[in-house]
Specification:
- It is a single chain.
- The protein has 191 residues and is mainly alpha-helical.
- It is built from nine helices and no strands.
- Helix 7 crosses helix 9.
- The radius of gyration is 19 Å and the shape is globular.
- The protein starts with a helix and ends in a 5-residue tail after the last helix.
């Protein structure tokens, strides 16, 4: 069934149509939330919150406003992620499972405990630096550098201006460079 037909049916209360929308977009919304929260459980909570809000707001969704359904969902997800980051501010959002997964060798590679420990330490320093950014800067940085969205796409997702996105991105990058400058010196390499 075409997405626009699913949206119309879901607006009229067809639960199966909304379920189809959920199944189509769930993974992308989870990946987006996980990118910011770096915790599977928190990302699942944001996915649930995103789709609950979407369901209740479906009557107000209008593709004529220039946002396709995926972009509209992403905006809801980003806002829910910002709220979750604010709520969890100061808490370590990275789960033990992520740390354990980072320790596993790639297929066909031998396990080097020293290299794994160094990689884990570097990842922890980067995560600490990212957590020091404001929630909005974290989201904008991740959208730009991890999800590879354009400035225009980020502005559309956040309901912001391109100038504001550029300002937050510039400040985030400057802060990260300052915080991570010593990391490159410690390893004898340049970032």
């Amino acid at each position: 069934m075409e997405e626009s037909a699913c949206i119309r049916l879901a607006r009229d209360g067809d639960w199966a149509a909304f379920r189809a929308l959920f199944e189509t977009h769930r993974h992308k919304v989870f990946c987006l939330a996980f990118r910011y929260l770096r915790n599977g459980s928190d990302a699942e909570d944001v996915v649930q919150e995103t789709f609950i809000k979407a369901y209740h707001s479906l009557g107000r969704y209008s593709p004529e406003k220039g946002l396709n359904f995926a972009s509209w969902l992403n905006r809801i997800c980003v806002n829910a992620s910002i709220d979750a980051l604010r709520k969890n501010r100061g808490m370590n959002a990275q789960s033990l499972a992520d740390d354990e997964a980072a320790q596993l060798p790639a297929p066909g590679k031998t396990f080097d405990p020293a290299a794994a420990a160094e990689t884990t330490q570097i990842r922890e320093r980067i995560d600490q630096a990212l957590r020091k950014l404001s929630p909005k800067q974290q989201i904008i940085f991740a959208l730009r550098h991890y999800e590879e969205y354009s400035i225009r796409e980020i502005a559309a997702h956040l309901g912001s201006t391109e100038g504001s996105v550029k300002k937050h991105l510039f400040r985030a990058v400057g802060s990260l460079k300052k915080q991570l400058q010593g990391l490159a010196m410690e390893g004898g390499r340049e970032l």
